[in-house]
Structures are given as C-alpha cells and as structure tokens.
Amino acid sequence: MKYSAKFVTSAAKPEQFPASHAPEVAFLGRSNVGKSSLLNSLLGTKHAHVSNTPGRTQTINFFAVNFGVEKTRPDLMLADLPGYGYARVPKHIVGEWPKFIEPYLGEREQLRLCVCLIDSNIPPQNSDLQLVEWLQSHGKLFQLVGTKTDRLSGNKLKQSLKALETEFGGEVLPYSSKSGTGKDELWRVIRITLDK
Ligand SMILES: Nc1nc2c(ncn2[C@@H]2O[C@H](COP(=O)(O)OP(=O)(O)OP(=O)(O)O)[C@@H](O)[C@H]2O)c(=O)[nH]1
Ligand SMILES: [Mg+2]
Predict the structure, then answer these.
(1) Whose CA is nearest to atom 7 of ligand 1?
(2) Domain span including residue 26
(3) 51 alpha carbon to ligand 1 midpoint, in Å?
(4) Rounded to two decimals, what is the model's pTM?
(5) Burial 88-125 (b: 16+ CB within 10 A, else e)
(6) Could you read off the pLDDT of 39-94 as tens digits, one per residue?
(7) CATH code assigned at 92
(8) Pocket mutation for ligand 1, best pick of 50, 86, 186 (most atoms within 8 Å of C-beta)
(9) Whose CA is nearest to atom 32 of ligand 1?
(10) What is the pLDDT of residues 137-183, one digit of tens each?
(11) Best residue for ligand 1 mutational test, from 51, 58, 60, 183 (most atoms within 8 Å of Cβ)
C-alpha cells in the first residue's frame, strides 16, 4: 500500500486541535511505551519524536495521511498523545495530561479508533486498565497493541501476551517498531475501521 504522511500541528489545549473532517486514529499509552516509535514505524518516517526520557511527548501531535497520491484533504489523521502513568515523570506533567487528553477522547467527533499501547515486557498496569475501562464505559472503539516484542522471545512473549489478553479481555496485537512485526496487521485494523 502506498501512502504519504505529513506533520500537521501540535496541540497543548483543545482550541488548538486541528479543524479536520478526516477520520482519526489516536495512539495512547504510558510514557515510554513506544507510541512515537510505533507511529514512525507505521508511517515509515521519523516525523514523531522518540526519546529515552519518559514524558517526551507533551502535546497532541497530529499527522495527516493520504493513501495513494497526496490530495489537499487527508484520508486519515493520526494523533500521537502524551504518555501517562510513568512514575519518573515530574508531577506537574502528570497533572497536566487529563486536562486535554480527556476532552480530546470525549469530544473529538472524528475519532474512530484508539490504539492502546501496552508494554509486552511487563505485567498489566493499573493505569492501562483504567484507560481501557474509561474507553469501554464511554463506548469508544479500541485496539490493544503489545509493544517492544523484539525484547522477548518464544514462550516468554507468548505467556506475556496471554497474561495481558486475560487481564484486558481483548486481543493484543504484537508489535515491534524495531523489526516491523505487526505493522501490516495494524494497518489492516485501521483500514477496516475506516471502511466501517
Ligand atoms: N527494543 C525496542 N525499543 C523500543 C521499541 N519502541 C520504542 N522503543 C524504545 O522505547 C523508548 C521510548 O520510545 P518512544 O517512542 O519515545 O515512547 P513514547 O511512548 O512516545 O514516550 P512518551 O512520548 O514519553 O510518552 C525509546 O528509547 C525507543 O527507542 C521497540 O519496538 N523495541
Ligand atoms: Mg512520544
């Protein structure tokens, strides 16, 4: 599949969300789980800023995607959201996120799918469960993705994904931004959602 992507804008408050009518997919997860890396791997670009320091992405960053040739109107918008729930992130940053992540999730009419990233290397975390419960109770469509699968091999990975699926009650799509594992499957999920 041929597609092109470009950075649109960074929003630090709801008034700055871009006025777009294109269907949108949001990428959510704890700080450092690999959201920006996954976005870059999906798009085959380095548009999103990746960092070893948790809490790097502190705004909602929007990317416009076109399938086939570039047109004036995007076919799809992707939103890279700031991470939550990382203990080492300074309190004032953690305190900021609900201020616009919740309005974004609750009010963004064009939002079609939330991709929820969970680290496949660690046991289920309360902050992730809280997010999934919030999405379920608000009737939002979501896809769970287990990140950094390249760090585990064979049985360990299988066991870890199974534990996450049991805890979250949904299919967890394995993904590695390093190797590209899961990229085609995630694109398929996004395309199916857009066709609905
Ligand atoms: N081994 C491995 N490392 C990864 C993978 N994805 C991300 N990382 C690493 O994890 C760290 C965090 O990645 P980011 O993509 O910046 O994470 P983020 O979720 O956007 O973080 P915040 O913006 O702080 O919320 C970086 O050091 C990445 O290189 C992966 O698939 N495999
Ligand atoms: Mg990021």
Answers:
(1) 34
(2) 3-195
(3) 7
(4) 0.92
(5) ebeeebbeebeebbeebbeebebbbbbbbbbbbbeebb
(6) 999 998 877 777 776 666 678 999 999 988 767 789 999 999 888 765 554 555 44
(7) 3.40.50.300
(8) 50
(9) 148
(10) 999 999 999 999 999 998 999 999 999 999 999 999 999 999 999 99
(11) 51
